[in-house]
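Standup notes
- DV: blocked on the single-chain target, sequence here:
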Amino acid sequence: MSEEYNDFPGCSPEGCASCSGCGSAGNAIPRTITLTLEDDTVVECAVLTIFPADEREYIALMPLDEEGESPKGEVYLYRYETGEEGEPMLSNIDEDSEYDRAADVFGSLVDNARLVAEAGPEEEEP
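- DV (later): unblocked, structure below
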């Protein structure tokens, strides 16, 4: 698995220990991750978010095509942990109930993001 980190201000492996916005427990969220699937297919994925659900963390990945786009709009959900040396570790979600809960939380995050985007920036009062 390879990674390329976001270049948002304060979002780097060294600089976001005090950030609480990404849910990554002090680690920067990589912008993309290259996965090797069980059939040895290599898939470049955009990292959408890392989020908590029921005392675990999960990662939402969007597979990208050769042009860096996701025409199908698919999202992969994996259990997310960090190793002893801070390296990301992904694992499959085997239980349907765990997957359903993670998918529900991710769906709520997407819905909330849409509401914020539709509302637009708040206007300051004069």
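- Follow-up: Helices lie at 96-119.
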